[in-house]
């Protein structure tokens, strides 16, 4: 069971309804809602509790947090009732620093009675929000006491059953002994609540809630439902046209509703205040009258009658408007204003209806004969409160004004006021420039207006001008205007300057300035300067002692250009002191001169000034951009410089933009210096994806920035390459006699750089097979994803690899998979012979058939006696390897013919040749050595039993010989009872002969034991190297008696991890790709067969093509000014390997120089790099390191910044230096001297190391280059043990990430003694490409 879901449901359960102005409203508890607009927010929960189920006695904590403005108040209820006080219940709340209000209920040692629905409600003045969660406590069911419920007739009502206990009990309702629901208006909801729709008086009564637990326990509680009818109010209104001073009344009659009913009057939503002119009288229980004894202005408003009973509260409202005559709010008063100002004449009145205010103006200066004032809305306007607003006041606006307020009630009111307007002094003549010629008369006129007394005064240098023989002032007046004329005779240049005419009266002052210019023959402009030079403009400034027009002449500073033919003129008016020259060309030196001219002539030219416009980024793109494939992983880009007219500066370099076509992403930028300004530039971009389309564009840049990319972007493809990974999922299985079925999946599309043309399957038997062909491997091509290989040796384990190929070459071979071909029908047994062993017995022996075609299940011996039907005798059934059988019961002196066949799962093979023998009685018979002499292929260290048994009469004795030496039982060989020889651990290949001797003769049987070993160490040599690959030549050695199944190339770079490359058998070379440019690489090779991996080849140390970055020329790399050093890192020379990044550090010349990193990784897209904020006219140290895969190159420069004027403090501002052992300025040496000293030290060190190595090698008794294991001093057992240890290391741990003790990969090279993964075999050599 759960309570209603939100606060609306709670309100719906508890509210009743009432009429509001003819409608309904809720009579619920106050939620703090306001009728006025506000900026605060209603509460919002930030944390609420969840449903919980606990056992009795457990502690429980419930928490709610909410935010709102103002901060909300949080209250708790349980089953819609306030929490009862208890020593086990505590409720608290607090407010956090972030404004959250947190409230919690802590229950200690809960009982089943504490279970129920807990509701936390957050409310403030703007709303409320509630959340409920259920606390279930294991225990029997119960029902809390239920309060009585009052409902409104005609509305739905819900009866809530506050049940508890867990598991949750079932809820049912009863009324007067009857189960509910009993009609369609009643329904029990899923949470146990009883819903009664459209409640009426017949629904009133006692309701019981009964809960039943799962074990049958029951509990019940009761409530009484009361259904009441809300009040109804008869409508009422006020009579229209009520004026102040009259009487009226208003009656409120309640026509319906259950008693008792309370009736109240409200004005404007508030209870009536004490008023002697207003009285409220209760006429009866159903009526109340409101009496107005004398209506006043303040009685206007809304009057509400509110009637309420226990069911609801209703109201009705009527509006009273009292008619009131006009009265002043702001009474008009007189005003004073100045000409051209704005004046506001106040006038405001109130009344009901609202009075209309009108303005009138009297003609002349008398206060009579007022006429309506025309308000045009421009100079005059009327405010909303009735005030008159006059703008740009004139003297004509002065006079008497009348403000009148009137409505339809009572008499209008009015008042006359006077407006006075004063005119301040004002000079009417506009000031300006007055020009006169030297020696003549200059006249300046000044006119002014304003109220009297008005005075005009001429001033120069802030002092009044006194009339004299060269200056006179004539004054006159007329038409309201005062005039003053200043005349100056025989003027000179000293009379030039500003003259001020000032007018004044009691209401203000006003003046105008006249600039008098005296024209004389001009002199050349002086102090000519050029500043604010940009790429397209420059500012020219000058000074002139007298007013004159100026002509600016400028041209390019080429020596062969004359002013008359190439100069450009710009005219500037008088009094100008500067001009902006525009339309200039970037990065061009100009010469400029100025000439002054007026009506009297032209001056001589001023001294010339030189200036150079700044550079701009190029507006043109490089031309003739072409892209060609430089290889599978490179593109060769060529281009020519932009048109010189579009470079706008000295080209400093180019930026190549590159990205794969059809791939979303940004361009990769590579910055290169200018190599050939007038010729063709080119650059090879390496490290690309084969057979891929690339968008390539080039842009040039100057010191001002980069220009546009070449357009259209050239698209070209890198050339195709062989697949870089092998086919996936290679599998195989035997298929028929001598057949294998192979299937696979294509290589990953990311590895295929051209369409795959087909696949090559390489099948190699794990043992030598005697066949007509010379090759030990089978290669078959196909275009399918599966292939059947036929004509393979039967019953043979086959190593299968698959290679993909296209028009360029082959992919690496897949890792080998192994499968066994099925058995074939065997050939005839070999060496069949028949030996007479008695008058009625015959011994038949043979050897297994060759070649091996499968496991021999048994042999069949056929014997025909005296041309009779042949008798079939099975030999070796059940897994025995018997190769002989004695026939008995023969007829003496009869002719017996015998032959033998072998049987495999494929069937019976070809019979051997037939042998004829005749048994005859003899006292003795030649002995026979039986056991099927054969060839055994055994891995070194494995055991094998060689069969041999001597038969004959008398019984022979058996013995064994190896290489002419008798064999005795020992650690490695054991003579078994019956004559067999067991080899416990085969060490070498040899022939073992079994001798059967008796007095009747001798017979022998020979077993050939071939010891199979891992291959001998192959050799590896460098064919040639490229920038990212090594072409290696493989020379194989002995295969150890079993075909070589593959090679493994192990390589690693400088202090890197070892990487293995699988190589198919039968190849003479391999290419190791994807290597860093110009870096040394250690490479060794192992071969492997069915017996394991060989010892490693001598380590080959070879470099890919390329060298570390070169040493740049300081003047190309470094540029200096007063506070910055500019580094053109892109000008750093590359020696075959691209530079990957640069590091820039700033050092000090103090003792113990320290370096501060400025840029730890500068990438290839960088153009000019600035190191700024340096002290001017001082020395600074810069250390720059260029890094590539071939190594790092570091240069140190001592750089002198210039002074503020651009002067250098040293003859060479950039000096390349190297650190010596002593810090400070004295610790810097010239690079060439230091290089020579270091070279001598290195040569001496190398000589000492060579001497030490030679002495040590004399003392070392270990392996030397070219030594075999047998040549090492010591016992042969020790040699074999060490050789076995080396072999096992590479057999079981071919990957040198973990190096077992004794493996070659665990030794260290002399050039990297700190690397635990370096290898150092017997012989190493280094290859340096030319």
Automatic annotation (TrEMBL):
The family database entries (PANTHER family) matched by this protein are listed as: BASIGIN RELATED, FASCICLIN-2
Record region (Disordered): 709-730, 1264-1315
Identify the gene encoding this protein.
Dscam2_24
Start and end residues of each Ig-like domain: 43-136, 140-221, 231-321, 326-414, 424-517, 913-1010
Any one Gene Ontology MF annotation carried by this entry is: cell-cell adhesion mediator activity
Q: Which GO cellular component term is one of those annotated?
A: axon
Can you say what this protein is called? Answer: Down syndrome cell adhesion molecule-like protein Dscam2
Its domain of life reads: Eukaryota
Q: Which GO terms describe its biological process?
A: axon guidance; dendrite self-avoidance; homophilic cell adhesion via plasma membrane adhesion molecules
What the entry lists under SMART domains is as follows: FN3, IG, IGc2
